[in-house]
Amino acid sequence: MNLGQWIGLIAILLSLYILWQIREVLLLMFAAVVLATTLNRLAKRFQRFGMKRGFAVLLAVAIFFAVIAGFFWLIVPPFAQQFQELTNQVPKGFERFNSWLDTLRTYIPKQLLPYIPDINSLIQQVQPIVNRLLGNSFAFVSGSLEVVLKILLVLVLTGMILADPVAYRKVFVRLFPSFYRRRVDGILDKCEVSLEGWITGAFIAILVVGLMSLIGLSILHVKAALALAVLAGFLNLIPNLGPTISVIPAIAIAFLDEPWKAVAVLILYFFIQQAESNFITPIVMAQQVSLLPAVTLIAQLFFVTFFGFLGLFLALPLTVVAKIWLQEVLIKDVLDEWGNNHKKETELVMVPESLGADDNWTAENPDINRQRRIDDDILQKED
């Protein structure tokens, strides 16, 4: 390797190191791009009805914030009320559990009494954990502020990109060599279409899961059924783990009424999860985005390992975009074209040589001469 090649290698390694150090910022930028793409596609739909670009963008942004405000309005008040009731019921639950243990001691042999747990000893064992959680309250508050700042950063970047998406797209395209810019522009079009397909499929899955949860919880007469259904629908954006997280508050609220309701809610969410993973997602996503289930799970593990919770939340759109770039650049432009140029040149060179063995014969056959000229023109174009 000469000096120029060494400098190029060092520059590539330094670039990769810098990109790794700012990976969280890049992930926030990608989240802003996904959100801006969604709102931009919605604004384009409004423009088809004759609405101007500015009003269409404002309407799309207003709908987005209305959905977010409606989500918190439906979720926060019922959950706050149920959480307060839960804190009042927990001491009563401890007393009931303690009385049940006292009753149990009267029916068991004395030799087994030392093995029966005491509620006071359990509280003493839990006390250090509670103190540790209270001691980490400052870290929790600072982490919450960090999340709020990241959300504000994503919203600001989304607004900037949405104001003039073409300009930012041109800047990104100019990062590539001039001969490849048209190709990159086409790949970006495919990424935009794929992201729109993923958003459409995710929205359909959210509606179906939320509606099934609302019907099931209403039949069981579980409190805050609408809030729990909305939460289950939105957490469905996180495959595999989202439905598992959504069942926890549902079981806790159902347990406040009757213990059997908690078991019934667990069974209900199990069947909803089976229907979502085996029927809803395969049918919807197969029509919108062709991703294999194993690829989805591997992508989740990869992104949550290197990027944390935000990587888990954006695992599917990241996988969709990565699939398009790998398919178009690595497979079509590199692997599929590997060795094709050499094969074409070999075929074009061998044909004229075999036909040009006898000049008198070719002079008497003008079709052969015309074929020669065509082959020479093709060779010049290939060169």
Structural topology:
Blueprint: H1 3-21, H2 23-47, H3 53-105, H4 119-135, H5 137-163, H6 165-173, H7 181-219, H8 225-235, H9 242-257, H10 259-288, H11 293-313, H12 315-335, H13 340-355, H14 359-363, H15 366-382
Helix pairs in contact: 2-3, 2-5, 2-7, 3-8, 7-8, 7-10, 7-12, 8-9, 9-10, 13-15
Distance between the termini: 28 Å
What is the mean pLDDT? Answer: 75
Decide which structural class fits the backbone. Answer: mainly alpha
Residue share in helix: over 70%
**How many beta-strand runs?**
0
Rg computed from alpha carbons, rounded to a whole number of angstroms: 31 Å
Quote the beta fraction.
under 5%
Please provide a written account of the structure.
The protein is mostly helical. 85% of the residues lie in helices and 0% in strands. The protein is built from 15 helices and no strands. It has helices at 3-21, 23-47, 53-105, 119-135, 137-163, 165-173, 181-219, 225-235, 242-257, 259-288, 293-313, 315-335, 340-355, 359-363, 366-382. α2 (23-47) packs across α5 (137-163), α8 (225-235) runs antiparallel to α9 (242-257) and α9 (242-257) runs antiparallel to α10 (259-288). The longest helix has 53 residues, at 53-105. The protein is elongated and about 85 Å long. The protein starts with a helix and ends with a helix. Mean pLDDT is 75; it is low at 137-141 and 344-368.
